[in-house]
Specification:
The protein is elongated and about 80 Å long. The chain has five helices and four strands, in the order H-H-H-E-E-E-E-H-H. Helices cover 43% and strands 8% of the residues. The protein is an alpha+beta fold. It folds into two domains: 1-29; 31-190, no CATH class. A four-stranded antiparallel beta sheet has the order 1-2-3-4.
């Protein structure tokens, strides 16, 4: 093969590799990736079925501790949970639109499968009590979750906190304090 052809092929490969690398690292946004909500739903269902209860886990009203009880159903791994906040005190027969858990930062992701580009606007991901099984139409695409605007997220989180307080669910004071603190922290950022 002539030297010129080899140089063209090498140059084309270098350009294609550079474009692929740039797209992967500069155009795709890897921050705020959600976990598989189908797997989380299944873990909750197994945990609740084993205990013959309709109450989601509630360990002293503490989000992290309550979420950790499904560790065994998640294969012993809970690294995924570090980016989530969970609202203890809810039951599966509560209004389906209430927030059971949410990603603790806005993200460009809709579900865990396909990475979004930096051109997509950030929004909040929340997992409702009904996990989209309750006959309610979710407000957008997602995997047993909803991608909502900051205003919608704050409204629904506030409504859920108020629901837990009003219905005096076990350890409601701890739940309200933890999630109101988070809500107030994101409202401070918005100002």
């Amino acid at each position: 093969m002539p030297k010129r052809v080899v140089l063209w092929i090498a140059g084309a490969l270098a350009v294609l590799t550079g474009l692929a690398f740039g797209y992967y690292h500069l155009i795709l946004d890897w921050d705020g990736r959600p976990f598989c909500h189908k797997q989380v739903n299944l873990a909750f269902r197994i945990w609740m079925d084993d205990r013959k209860t309709n109450v989601f886990p509630n360990i002293a009203g503490v989000s992290r501790d309550s979420l950790t009880v499904i560790r065994e159903e998640m294969g012993g791994h809970m690294v995924w949970a570090q980016n989530y906040r969970y609202i203890p005190g809810l039951r599966d027969d509560d209004p389906g639109h209430l927030v059971l858990m949410y990603l603790d930062c806005p993200t460009r992701w809709t579900w865990h499968g396909m990475a979004p580009t930096i051109l997509k606007e950030r929004a909040w991901i929340l997992v409702p009590v009904d996990f989209a099984f309750g006959g309610r139409q979710p407000s957008g695409p997602g995997e047993m979750s909803e991608r909502v605007t900051p205003e919608e997220f704050k409204r629904r989180l506030r409504e859920t906190i108020e629901f837990v307080r009003k219905n005096a669910r076990p350890h409601w004071q701890t739940v309200v304090a933890e999630h109101m603190k988070f809500l107030e922290s994101i409202e401070q950022v918005d100002r």
